[in-house]
Amino acid sequence: MKFSFASLSLPKSGAIVAGVKEGKAMTPAAKDIDKRTGGAVKRALASGRFTGAKGQTLEILAPAGMGNSRILLVGLGSGLDMLAQQALGGRILAHMNSVGETAATFLVDDGADDLAEAAAQIAYGARLKSYRFDKYRTKEKANKKPSLRALALRVDGFATARRAFAVLDKVADGVFFTRDLVSAPPNDLYPETFAAEVKKLTELGVKVEVLGEKQMQRLGMGALLGVGQGSIRESRLVVMRWNGAARNKQPLAFVGKGVTFDTGGISLKPAGGMEDMKWDMGGAGTVAGVMKAVAGRKAKANVIGVIGLVENMPDGNAQRPGDIVTSMSGQTIEIINTDAEGRLVLADALWYTQDRFKPQFIVDLATLTGAIIISLGHEHAGVFANDDTLSENLIAAGKATGEKLWRFPLNKDYDKQIDSPAADMKNVGGRPAGSITAAQFLQRFVNNTPWAHLDIAGMAWSGKDKDTVPKGGTGYGVRLLDTMVKEFYED
Length: 491
Ligand code: BES
Ligand code: MN
Ligand code: ZN
Known about the structure:
By secondary structure, this protein is of the alpha/beta class. Helix content is 35%, strand content 21%. The protein contains 14 helices and 20 strands. The chain has helices at residues 28-36, 40-46, 82-99, 115-129, 158-183, 191-199, 213-219, 222-228, 282-296, 342-357, 371-376, 388-401, 434-443, 478-488; strands at residues 2-6, 15-21, 25-26, 57-61, 70-77, 103-107, 150-154, 207-211, 236-243, 252-262, 302-312, 324-326, 332-334, 361-366, 381-385, 405-407, 425-426, 451-455, 461-462, 472-473. The strands form four sheets. Strands 8-9-11-10-14-18-15-16 form an eight-stranded mixed beta sheet, with helices on both faces. Strands 1, 2, 3, 4, 5, 6 and 7 form a seven-stranded mixed beta sheet that branches. The chain has a three-stranded mixed beta sheet with strand order 12-13-17. A hairpin with a 5-residue loop joins strand 12 and strand 13. 53% of the residues are buried. Zinc ion is lined by residues 259, 262, 280, 341-342. Ligand BES binds at residues 262, 280, 337, 339-342, 367, 369-371, 428, 434, 457.
């Protein structure tokens, strides 16, 4: 799909999108079209329920007196904020594809404080919505494929809009990278191939190191390695580094759970829905996408991404309930349930990150617990933090991007649930407060670094189409973290 920006004027062909504000108040473009069509817009506005409220649309086909295929009138309400502009872009794209339109031009001349910025946000929303995972489809009919080839935005100050979009487009590249990784089938995406995909970020100036099992053994990563030992696929730890600020500037660190498939291991999951566990690498996918976004837009920050990649399989060599493993931190963990594997992977990835990089903060992301879905459903990810400023910055970025977060408590009184009679701790804390005891577990591996944990189990995948997110892998967290870096941590 091609996105372009130009000055205001009516296009001679293709679809035109024009706004109407609340109370059927026509924008200049709508008035212009009305004049050329001998009053078709006014007549259309008089004939139905369309009032110009946010989210409404009204279509005029093959307008007389014009060479265009269609006029799509879109409700602007009393003006659109940034998220509403993105949503509008997404809905326009979906509509044009559903009717088989190939080219559309949006005349952005009213309905926002900053029209050039609005045009960029509309294009960004359309781009985000245009994602498809169709690599594995060989028989899709032509009339099911997207038809729209070009979306043009016409606006005063189009050069400013074009520049703003160029940056947003890089963030969308990061979101698409995450969605590709999350959607990939687990026979093709496993630790080694995931690491190979991440290696491609070197083209953007990201330094990528891949640690194999031998190196992790030498570092003493018994917790991570224990999870992967039942798989024929070797585990990997991938370290990504983007240096966009001065060398001596302390880095920001993102750490992701990358379980490329979670069968539960010997504590095997039930069969129903187990295919969903291909996206149990969603946290790692988001970290990789954030690295692509910050590198793509050349963020003025030093950013580290660390992802622990393993496959959790039942096998003759798999780890058993009752095993005790020693993590890189030296702390020992009694395995009670091999399905509580994400925290074991993160234990070593977190310890390694704080120990090697001494970052300003660590944010980890993980599809960690089913319990977070019971708590928050699919509207918020849970955030757990040992630092209020970090938590507030994350929550603010979540509001700005629509990738919402809700804070949960951390408290030492939950620790007794993960006491073990045989080791320093056990890997499950029973049913009560399952997401919190998981976070309490992780906290033992951050060594007082300012830290936040995002439990994204309810957010990494969507069963429903949303305005800017098609169903499937969502890329949740890329926009959120990229925005947090930009708003709070860049020079
Ligand atoms: N990957 C799962 C959590 C999950 C569940 C993510 C559903 C997405 C959708 C995690 O590894 C897991 O199995 N957690 C267990 C922990 C329990 C054994 C303490 C859970 O949530 O049931
Ligand atoms: Mn599990
Ligand atoms: Zn898991």
